[in-house]
C-alpha cells in the first residue's frame, strides 16, 4: 500500500483477551460463564438496583483491568501507525491502545473509558483508581463526593446512546478509509458495527479478524480466524510493506 493509504481499524474485546481482559460474547466470555453479569454493565439495572451496583464494583475491583498491559496485537497497530495514516476506532474501554503507544488523538473510544468514573447526576468525573480505593476501604457503592449521586464508569453502558459527536467522527473515518480492519469484534453491537457497512459502501476493502463468525464476513475480502496476537502482527507486516 502507498504511504497515503488511510487505514481504519475497529477493535473489539477480542484484541484485549490476551491481556487478561475477558470478552462478553465469546465461547469463554463473561456472559457465557455468568449470564446475570450482563446486568452489571446495563444502565437500567445499574441505576435502579443497589445490589447490582455493589456486584459491579466488586467485579471491577477483582478484574484488575487497570493493571492490564498491552499485548502483541496492540503493539502491532502502533507499528502500523508509524508506517501509514491510521485511525483506531475502539469498542474497548481499557485504554490499552494508548498504553501501547498509540497517540491518543488517533484513537476514538466509541464506548468511553473505564479509566474514569462519572456521576450520573452532576456529571463530575474522577479516576476509577480512586473509586476502587474507596471500595477497598469499605464503601460497597461509593457515591459522588460532590453531590452524593450514583457513580458509574465513564463508559457507554448497554442501554445508553453513543456520543453523537464521536459517532459522527467515526463514520467520517470509515467513509474516507481505503482499508477497514475489524479486529476481535463480534460486530453485533450497533451503531459501532454499522461502521463496517459505511466503509464497504464507500469502497474500502474489508478484513475481518475474529475467532467466531460475524454478520459481516460475507462482505470481507479476507476473513482471519487465527489468534489475534499472532495474526494481527502478520497482517500489519503485509499492509505496511
UniProtKB/TrEMBL annotation:
Q: Which GO terms describe its molecular function?
A: histone deacetylase activity, NAD-dependent; metal ion binding; NAD+ binding
Catalytic residues, per the record, are 111
Q: Which UniProt keywords apply?
A: Metal-binding, NAD, Transferase, Zinc
First-tier enzyme category under EC: transferase
- UniProt cross-references to Pfam families, sorted A to Z: SIR2 (PF02146)
E.C. code: 2.3.1.286
The residues that hold Zn(2+) are 119, 122, 144, 147
Quick one: signal sequence residues?
none
Q: Where is the Deacetylase sirtuin-type domain?
A: 1-241
What protein does this entry describe? Answer: protein acetyllysine N-acetyltransferase
Originating species: Streptomyces tateyamensis
Amino acid at each position: 500500500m502507498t504511504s497515503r493509504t488511510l487505514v481504519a481499524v475497529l477493535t473489539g474485546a477480542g484484541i484485549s483477551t490476551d491481556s487478561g481482559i475477558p470478552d462478553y460474547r465469546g465461547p469463554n466470555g463473561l456472559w457465557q460463564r455468568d449470564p446475570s453479569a450482563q446486568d452489571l454493565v446495563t444502565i437500567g439495572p445499574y441505576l435502579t438496583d443497589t445490589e447490582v451496583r455493589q456486584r459491579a464494583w466488586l467485579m471491577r475491583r477483582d478484574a484488575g483491568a487497570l493493571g492490564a498491559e498491552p499485548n502483541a496485537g496492540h503493539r502491532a497497530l502502533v507499528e502500523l501507525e508509524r508506517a501509514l495514516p491510521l485511525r483506531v476506532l475502539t469498542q474497548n474501554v481499557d485504554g490499552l491502545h494508548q498504553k501501547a503507544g498509540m497517540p491518543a488523538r488517533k484513537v476514538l473510544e466509541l464506548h468511553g473509558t473505564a479509566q474514569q468514573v462519572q456521576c450520573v447526576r452532576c456529571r463530575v468525573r474522577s479516576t476509577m483508581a480512586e473509586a476502587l480505593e474507596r471500595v477497598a476501604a469499605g464503601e460497597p457503592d461509593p457515591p459522588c463526593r460532590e453531590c452524593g449521586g450514583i457513580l458509574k464508569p465513564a463508559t457507554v453502558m448497554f442501554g445508553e446512546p453513543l456520543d453523537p459527536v464521536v459517532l459522527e467522527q467515526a463514520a467520517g473515518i470509515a467513509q474516507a478509509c481505503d482499508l477497514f480492519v475489524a479486529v476481535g469484534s463480534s460486530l453485533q453491537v450497533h451503531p459501532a458495527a454499522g461502521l463496517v457497512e459505511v466503509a464497504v459502501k464507500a469502497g474500502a476493502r474489508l478484513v475481518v479478524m475474529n475467532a467466531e463468525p460475524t454478520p459481516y464476513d460475507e462482505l470481507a475480502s479476507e476473513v482471519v480466524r487465527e489468534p489475534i496476537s499472532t495474526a494481527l502482527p502478520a497482517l500489519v507486516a503485509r499492509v505496511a510493506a
